[in-house]
Amino acid sequence: MDRNTLSTLTNDVELMENESSFPENHPTPARQAINELKVFLNYLDSTGRIAVSNADQSERQELLGLLTTLTKITKSISQATYRMYHNASETHQDEEHFEEMSQQALNETPETAPLDALEHTENCDNFENNSEDTEEDSDVDDGSQEESLEEPLLGDNSFKFNFRVDYDPPVRKRLYPKGFRSMQIPVNNCLLRISETACVCLLCMKHLIGKREVFVQHVKGPKHAQAALDGVRLMNLNNFHLAFLNLDANFQAHQVYFQPAQHNTDSVHCRMCRTDVKIRNVAEHILDARHKNMFLRNFRNKPTSFFLMDLQLLCYGIENGSGTNEENSAPDSSERIHDVRPSYDLTNPDSWNFLLPFRYLSQSDHFRKNETSTSVKCNLCDKMILSDRKNLLRHIESKAHMTALGKIRQKNYQYFCQICKVAMKKSGWIRHFDAMKDHTKELKEEKLGEYQCMTCNLIIFGEDSAVKNHPKSMNLFKKERKHELSDFTRTTFASAEQLNKVADSMAIEADMVANCTSVTEAFCKRLETIMNAKLGGTSRCKAYPFGSRVCGLGNESSDLDVFLDVGGMYDGERKQDYESQGRIVKLVSKTLRQHRDDFERIYAIPDARTPIVCFNCRRSRLKCDLSFRHGLSVENTEFVGLCLELQPITQKLILVLKKWFQTNQLKKKIPTYAITIMAIFYMQVNGYLFSVNKLRQLNPAPPILIDGWEAITYTMTTEEMINHITPYPDTLEKLLKDFFVYYLNFNYKEDVSIILLHCVKH
């Protein structure tokens, strides 16, 4: 049989209940495979018998071994438990691997490779019983799942990628979580988590997006199993890990943008820059201006689109000014692994790190050395500086240079002198050294140096041995945190009269925006016209507005959220995979750029959890976020709008809460939609709004199934439903107070609120 036949057997054979009902000439994959097997059996029955009878003793023994292997494979397939409408190759992965059996039979003689000794090395079912990916990893890995690579490469299918991969703990925990590393798959460490809902199969070079079941289905699939037998792919995977293992943690974190190169075994592919990079040049590529600029642009627009972006920033000496933290709780500073390194590289006088401390090394692009002079030029400030550390440091920290540097925020470091046991700010760091010269003469200067702790953002001067104990001195920097109320909170909550005045003003603006349907409809109609003209054919695009502007919780500056259905996508059954969403985003953004008279500032984000296209509409001056998943957000907006109509005071409650969260810097910690759901749930548990189940009882029409969720088909009018609602009897002031008291006493650790049933579950 040729490779096409084997591919048909491996990838395309579907076990269908009514396949026999197809016409005889219907070219189903199974029937094609049957015809090929009949030809093979006819050959075996004639030519094969003659070959065996005419063979000498050694050839006959080898032929008999191969025929015995074929018999066992056939028996294994016939005894497999088939599940209707499941892929046949996936079913066979629960049986002995006939690929491995045949490979071993070809490489070894029957005497050295008895059939009973053949091992089945894939068992992905264990993955579904593992703990969640977010569980804490043990610092000590017993190595039971990952073994050292001892076998030589004997052929394309004999390479086994099972060596131990020891990334730094924060990288290993986030990118290769426990649930992935404990999977009993033929190849370990081939799944790389890049975000909360996406990962990359480094073996198949395929992007996977969705829930855990999507990842499980992939590793249990036939294409992944086939890739595990490809020696070239395995070698590429091996080289991918070798490219990052010896780098620092902040460089390791950048592997979310890389994958193995398809055609160059000595390279990896940077998806962000769309170029292959030699393994030895990965660190240099990450520091390259092009990669850096693309990363910073991505970070500014979506700082949580990939894992470990805060750690990745350290490569450029920049911190995330938003203060976000990917971990639920940070460990105590004394318990963390402290990455302490010298600030200067004294071994290489020609490098910039000899003159610039590591924390400012990313700024070396702004300086130019003059080989014939003892000065360097700052291109940003157009100024010559003496090429010694003190003068360069003073220039970099000067106000003029910081202004020229622009909006990119630099890390705020703490400074500590181990010799004097003194903590200080950046402004006094250089002056301190000038003042302590006499004090340090008695010490051996070669033992002293400046060090940087990447973990604590701490700059330390002292001896190497003393520097390693710096966590014990961290209490010098601890300050009591001050909690101050925002101006909005102080003025709005000063009196009940002022509270009602502010709430009424926000409600009037929100209603005005929501009732301005003509602008929204004209915008959506124009969008549909452009996309229908682009797609042509029978495809009919439909734009559905949703979000705060539509339901009555927005304002003049709110973005307009629109779901664009480009063909049968409302129920979430079509074009939901990563590749399809990426193609749609690129097509739509390209189309919008062809209509510059209508749209501007067009920016595509295909790698987000929900891929979107952001742009501004010139005519309406609206800022729009265009998504392409399904219509669940549209249905949710309709539900929220209904709640506001049934109990009007809910609108003022949510608007005040949103403004309160925003002005007290809590909006980044709790999403706006979560605030809305919290308010609706509070009204539900107190009997002032329906639960979702109650709404279904009042509207018994068959629900709409969207992405596995049942959306209500409303048959009862809003006026009829209001008759079943108890109006809220008290004031907004009382409602807000009771809301805060309720969630103050809520057991966030053990309880969960269920808006479907308006109840709390333990």
Automatic annotation (TrEMBL):
A single MF term (Gene Ontology): RNA uridylyltransferase activity
Transmembrane regions listed in the UniProt entry: 670-690
InterPro entries: MTPAP-like_central (IPR054708), NT_sf (IPR043519)
Top-rank taxon, per record: Eukaryota
Record's keyword terms, sorted: Membrane, Transmembrane, Transmembrane helix
Region entry Disordered, spans: 123-151
Residue ranges occupied by any Poly(A) RNA polymerase mitochondrial-like central palm domain in the UniProt entry: 517-639
Gene Ontology process terms (BP): RNA 3'-end processing
Biased composition (Acidic residues): 130-150
Protein name according to UniProt: Poly(A) RNA polymerase mitochondrial-like central palm domain-containing protein
Organism lineage string: Eukaryota, Metazoa, Ecdysozoa, Arthropoda, Hexapoda
